Amino acid sequence: MKSYFGRQVVHAKVNKVPENIVSSAAFIGNICQRCGQNVHGKLPKNHFYCRACLALGRVSTLDVLLSLPEPNNFDGNDILSWIGQLTQQQKVVSDELLETLSRQREHLVWAVTGAGKTEMLFPVIHQALTQKYRIAIVSPRVDVILELAPRLQQAFSETDKVVLHGEQTEAYRYTPLVLATTHQMLRFKSAFDLLIVDEVDSFPYAGDQMLAHAVKNARKINSAVIYLSATPTKALQQQVKRQLLTTSYLPLRFHQHLLPVLKTTIVGPWRKKLPVIFLRQIKQFSQTKRRFLIFVPQVSDLVGVYQNIKKNFPDMLGDHVFAGDPKRQEKVQNMRDQTIQYLVTTTILERGVTFPGIDVLILGADEKIFSENALVQISGRVGRNKDRPTGLVKAYVQHTNFKVIAAQRQIRQMNKRGQQLGGRV
Amino acid sequence: MSCHLCQNNSHNKLSLLETFNVIKKAKKKLCLTCELAFRVIIVGCLGCGRQQTNSQLCHDCYRWQQKGKKLLNHTALYQYNDAMRQFMKQYKFNGDYDLRVIFNRVFSQKINILNADIVVPIPVSEHTMLTRGFNQTTGLIEGIPYEQLLKVSANEKSHQSQFNRQIRMTRKQPFTMIEQVSLKGKEVLLVDDVYTTGNTLYHAADLLYECGAKNVKSISLSR
Prior knowledge:
The complex is a heterodimer. The longest helix of chain A has 19 residues, at 402-420. Helix content of chain A is 29%, strand content 22%. In chain A, strand 19, helix 9 (372-379) and strand 20 (393-397) form a beta-alpha-beta unit. By secondary structure, chain A is an alpha/beta fold. The mean pLDDT of chain A is 89. Chain B is α/β, with parallel strands linked by helices. Helix content of chain B is 32%, strand content 13%. In chain B, helix 9 links the parallel strand 5 (187-194) and strand 6. Chain B is globular. The mean pLDDT of chain B is 85. The interface between A and B is medium-sized, with 17 and 11 residues.
């Protein structure tokens, strides 16, 4: 019974429906009732199935969707075990979030990378838990969720929570707190009183109708939604302008220092031969024992760049990682544990990860894959530590183009606002 | 055009003659990386089609022979490797019926070459038909005339793929004939999606021989 609360479970028509459970049609007027899309695959005998949400298990005209309304069966005795202080600016945002919860509106937190977004959420999550609300924290990227999970475990150690994503092995349980990827929201229906979408501008959520439908469907009619982003998309910014969405703006990092500004260097064709300036920079890193990330545009560039650096600096330990890497989690963990000094990576590490005290080099920053927002996010990996609040972000480009300049401008603009709040370099 | 399996866009370069429609090539369903992941069986065992260095009878087929069965002379197109396992999972168990088109062409060609009198696909149970919605074998050979002579007996419920070899080998006859027909003097070709132990196909062949078939051969997509 419990596992049906606020869920949408696919169930074959032939099998018996358990007692007291509400079953509804899987398709109404050719529209899949789980994902709201109209993309069909044919089956024999005039049946069909939905191809849009196939990855979460097939919904076909042979199935029904089972669900039970969310009863909020929680005790509400949750304790915030986080001991820490919010800065003055964080406190302001946090209060606005509490207001969001009480007024049940949609709200965007536009805070620079490393502003301490997670910490600002703790009071509002705690408030919601004591009101016996059901809460979901979702993100399009699984890395973000996996990094959030232990931090929330620390902050709400008494609260029962479940982490849902595509490769999880843990079974679903009925819990007040749900951490999940946005795709998992397709499995919920009118379940959450508070829904927090982290990194709302990132792939694949931005511009995806199915995922927008999933989030909309998973929240209750009277519920609050909080979007978190450092680089909101044009669409979100427009909603803010039209006053459909309230905003909190936080242009300063938690340690009160300004963002490091992206510096560009023009180099030759680096795919043929790594530029001398680039290697000189790495030599400097190897002497000062500084840890760093190297971003490359394509997966095919990874091995070449990595081998080249290894040849030039054989005693420096490093690795390379990409999205489909079977040892991906392990390698990132190595970097976090400081067992390796550098990591050559694609854009997968552009957001949601924190390595203390690193520098960043971007090879081929002028290429298509590095968008303006991606460059801002990559720059945001630097200086996330109180002990080393600044750092070096260098972009090696063959031609400067508008996008790189726009990224620099965006960082400078945020710094300008940060300075007004008393940020220092 | 995007690959049916990995959805990546493959940039097929057209030759000059193709550009002007002088020659036409069949549209590829898979990108090169996905296509290379499937391994074609070149030389296989005479009895079951398993990939080997020579075409001698393998150990399993030798055992079938000892049991007094007439060998099926099975033909299999692809090895059952990781890529094939992944494909079958997506196609059968996740129920993505659109994937049937990927091997439809090669599979149909092979069946046409074997030139049997009657093509008989292995059936699925009624319960599977109502949950999965399709028979994976008839999907793969879409476009080829076949006769559904067999059906799964009412007491069969479970999928074979969840059992180990020992349980599968001791399984009793799972099929019955839909109606008693005479197959006297006919060459019959049994079609299945995957040949694992051969148990399913030999059971089906037994029934067809009882109906008087002259010779029963079999083919599967994978071995």
